[in-house]
Specification:
Oligomer: single chain
Shape: globular
Distance between the termini: 42 Å
Order of helices and strands: HHHHHHHHHHHHHHH
Number of domains: 1
Helix content: over 70%
Number of helices: 15
Number of strands: 0
Strand content: under 5%
Length: about 450
Amino acid sequence: MKSNRNPYGLWALAWPIFIEVLLQTLLGTVDTVMVSRISDDAVAVVGLSGQLFAALTTLFMTISGGAGILIAQKLGAKRGDDARTIAIMGLTVCGGIGLTIGLLLLTQAKALANLLNVSAELLPLWDVYVSYFGGGMMLTALIAALSTAIRNTGNTRAPMYIGIAMNVIHIAMNYVLIFGMFGFPEWGLFGVTVSGNVSRLVAVLLLFYVFIQAFDRRIGFKDLFTFKPRLFKEIVHIGWPLGVNMSGWVFSQLAIYTFIAMLGAAELATKTYMSTLESFCFMLGYAISLAIQIQVAHLFGAGKTREAYVGAYRALAIGIGLAMINALLLLLMGRHLLGLFSQNEAILALGTSLLALNLLLQPGKVLNMSLNNALNAVGDTRYTMMTALCSMSIVATGGSYWLGIHAGWGLAGIYCCMIADEWVRGLLVLRRWKGQKYLRRAEAASRPLESRAIAAETGMSV
């Protein structure tokens, strides 16, 4: 008997995403602790290279993000074949982009280090991590495309289980290969790259198995060569502003990390540790905001614009409340938690001083994140792109250099600018969502269709 459970209910979508993010964050914290046992320099390399990887992944996240929104919209509009085709094209295009990025990182690690002003003492570790872990970027691209497509069909549980399995494999192999346990060689940071590539490969295989059965018609090998220009144009239309927005954020973060690197290795390691701790503050807010994007896109495709409008505010209120509770807990326990990563007193003192600022950062971040996702779900991606680019370039990046470097405020000055950026963008998208531009447009477009349907039923002309 077919289940009557609504796969697009907010809680049904959000809780598996939350569990996935929670366990990924916990395992990511364990991963950071393991890397810190190699050295603080190794942590600095992983943190800085992570920003580089994030910058490059925007190239395929543009496609997977646009495809994901359209999949939910098409399924809401009862156009399952179009949703299936969009998912297939998203997978193949993302895979090709990921392969290209992987080859770039494998062959040009040293050139990228010079571009990012990586200090001489970090170069040997940088070369190992960027070349070998970054060289497997195609796996990350396939994971992004597959998991996004599956989630937007309403199945958020499968990516959760597979994400958990991937991270458990990664941590277990880290333990063995970093420290040379059970007779294996002691590979240090190179061991992290091996475990990362193996765990990602396992995730791709499991996600692909779920993906081929995610739609009404099973996806076969020949279907992977499907390409429909009309639908791909829709993906690009809704996806390119998402990509530019994401690229702007990542490059802004990359520039900020470069400024922090100018302050010194201790500041860079502190920011990496703080980013790990901060992720606990907004992970439930993030899960809810991602769930609301899927839900709003589905409701919008189905023509239920009023439900979509109210649902975004409900998600926002829940997300902000939970992020604030987590931020308060982090403030109380922060120094002890930082001590899990490092015993360097300079790092502990600096990190502790930033925890109070985190109380201001988190609500602005959730406000920005939730309503950005809601606007993206209805196709208003250009507005979110323009507001993000202006605020990130002027407030976040420009302000961080001015306060953090020029004015000598250091890492605290950079944090102040990050807070200001989140609030500026959050208030702008709040104003836009209240205006309901795309929702009203969809309502207006649906009225002639409703009139024709009524006329067809009654035999009257319109």
